[in-house]
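quick q for whoever's on today - can somebody do inverse folding on this one?? i tried earlier but teh output was garbage lol. tokens:
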């Protein structure tokens, strides 16, 4: 068996084992619950792996190694930052809302006092305990929660890194990873750690508060906003490497179906190129399978003991993926005459991102509609970003992650019709505006905060870099100085013999020949009439000091018969 087939077979067997293990656990055929959490977390790691394979398939072959390196960089930054202070920032105050025994000690949350006085308590902003998993975060439940969130924060850090690769220096990418990891912890506190977004319903009566079960806001929307800030701050790879003349809209050679429309003078833009279709397609399938374990590790289930049916979750995700695949395939077929593999893969991924935010609270038909709408939005927004705004986004961070996450969060406020923790979540189709307002507030807050903070960092770094390189140097005006006059040269020295030109029109040069002798400078002899000899100045060229014996005389020169 070939090594490639052996590797693929091993991967398929591992996927089957990972998928079967949580199912066996539900029937009491497995080890205790802690081991089940390990298996679901291992399954969730397929999501960042799949996104990395999709990014490798979409970038140029020369940048695949860079994408792989940035994936490992994202893993290192996410794990260390989350261990040092990220977990404390996110779940330092989860003890106020959780009844899990091992999390009750995490009960230190900082909130802004004016908000508490005006609108009630529980306006938490950041957690203050649990650094480096020390007490009170040294319990088994707290460490299981930490382990379950590692795939989430790694994905959040990797999305902007893959989008910004090739635009700036490596140190800036490290700073971007640190910033994104910190933003994930902060937004995670607002959404799941007892922060103010989750308590909008309790404090302001906005439905059940901000709902984001699968991390669409903290991971995909925040990562896409950070990537967009980097695109605006650092510019595009095309402008930096190929020059601005290469940014013109590409035209597609019209063939068959498009030949009839090309006679009207319209310009067609091709779909983005797909360099490695096998990697891109395999990446989306891995993300689809890994999302099952991803949703099982949601903080709402681990901290609030939310009952989520895995069967319903799997059905809903598959319906969303099917809707996204069909709409994207139809769009690419109608616009280019053939189905585009890359756009379909991105449409499926966008549908999964949109469906992850509120999957348990949406009916199955709504999951299909949400996925279909996300699959249609991805190519439209990708065209807007690349060809109208002229931004270079080869990994489709804004269209696939940002737009889909935004749509999925708003869809919860439109189609929601479920129950959680004894309360109901009702959307616009049920005549309730509160939940939609909570979702819109949360989505706008995450997008604006992530974009502004990231842009400030990137703009400051870009300004310092340009100042260091001397682009912002202030030069004082100087008094203009007259240029020194160069002396008039009457002759030009060299190996060539230049012919003299008469100053008057009535001078006729009848014969010119070159005489070359050893250790004697070459001379130019000119025969003119006796009457005009005095008015025809002739310039002589000085021959080089060494004899030039290899120079042949002109054809009309007299030959020496002796």
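ok took a stab at it. sequence:
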């Amino acid at each position: 068996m070939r090594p490639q087939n052996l590797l693929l077979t091993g991967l398929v067997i591992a996927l089957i084992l990972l998928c079967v293990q949580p199912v066996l656990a539900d029937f009491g055929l497995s080890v205790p619950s802690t081991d089940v959490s390990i298996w679901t977390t291992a399954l969730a790691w397929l999501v960042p792996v799949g996104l990395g394979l999709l990014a490798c398939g979409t970038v140029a072959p020369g940048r695949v190694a860079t994408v792989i390196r940035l994936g490992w960089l994202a893993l290192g930054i996410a794990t260390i930052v989350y261990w040092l202070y990220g977990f404390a920032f996110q779940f330092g105050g989860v003890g106020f809302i959780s009844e899990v025994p091992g999390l009750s000690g995490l009960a230190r949350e900082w909130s802004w006092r004016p908000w508490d006085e005006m609108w009630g308590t529980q306006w938490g902003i950041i957690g203050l305990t649990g650094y480096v998993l020390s007490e009170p975060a040294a319990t088994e439940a707290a460490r299981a929660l930490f382990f379950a969130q590692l795939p989430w924060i790694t994905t959040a850090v990797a999305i902007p890194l893959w989008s910004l690769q090739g635009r700036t220096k490596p140190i800036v990418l490290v700073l971007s990873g640190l910033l994104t990891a910190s933003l994930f912890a902060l937004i995670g506190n607002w959404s799941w750690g007892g922060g103010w977004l989750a308590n909008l319903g309790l404090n302001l009566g906005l439905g059940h508060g901000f709902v984001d079960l699968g991390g669409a806001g903290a991971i995909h929307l925040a990562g896409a906003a950070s990537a967009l800030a980097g695109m605006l701050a650092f510019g595009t790879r095309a402008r930096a490497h190929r020059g601005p003349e290469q940014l013109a809209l590409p035209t597609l050679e019209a063939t068959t179906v498009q030949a009839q429309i090309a006679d009207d003078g319209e310009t067609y833009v091709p779909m983005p190129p797909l360099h490695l279709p096998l990697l891109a397609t395999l990446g989306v399938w891995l993300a689809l399978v890994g999302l099952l374990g991803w949703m099982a590790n949601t903080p709402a289930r681990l901290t609030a003991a939310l009952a989520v049916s895995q069967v319903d979750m799997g059905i809903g995700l598959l319906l969303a993926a099917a809707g996204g695949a069909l709409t994207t395939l139809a769009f690419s077929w109608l616009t280019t005459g053939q189905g585009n593999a890359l756009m379909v893969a991105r449409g499926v991924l966008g549908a999964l991102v949109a469906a992850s935010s509120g999957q348990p609270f949406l009916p199955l038909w709504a999951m299909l509609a949400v996925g279909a709408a996300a699959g249609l939005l991805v190519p439209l927004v990708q065209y807007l970003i690349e060809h109208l705004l002229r931004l270079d986004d080869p990994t489709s961070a804004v269209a696939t992650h940002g737009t889909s996450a935004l749509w999925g969060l708003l869809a919860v406020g439109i189609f929601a019709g479920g129950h959680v923790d004894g309360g109901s979540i009702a959307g616009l189709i049920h005549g309730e505006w509160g939940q939609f307002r909570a979702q819109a507030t949360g989505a706008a807050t995450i997008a604006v905060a992530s974009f502004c903070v990231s842009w400030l960092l990137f703009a400051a770094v870009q300004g310092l870099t340009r100042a260091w390189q001397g682009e912002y140097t202030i030069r004082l005006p100087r008094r203009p100085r007259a240029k020194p006059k160069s002396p008039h040269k009457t002759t030009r020295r060299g190996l060539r013999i230049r012919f003299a030109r008469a100053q008057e029109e009535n001078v006729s040069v009848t014969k010119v020949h070159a005489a070359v002798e050893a250790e004697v400078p070459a001379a130019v002899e000119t025969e003119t009439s006796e009457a005009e000899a005095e008015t025809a100045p002739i310039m002589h060229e000085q021959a080089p000091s060494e004899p030039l014996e290899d120079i042949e005389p002109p054809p009309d020169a007299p030959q020496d018969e002796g």
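fwiw Residues 434-468 form the longest helix (35 residues). also Confidence is low (pLDDT under 50) at residues 1-6, 23-34, 238-264, 489-551. so keep that in mind when u check it
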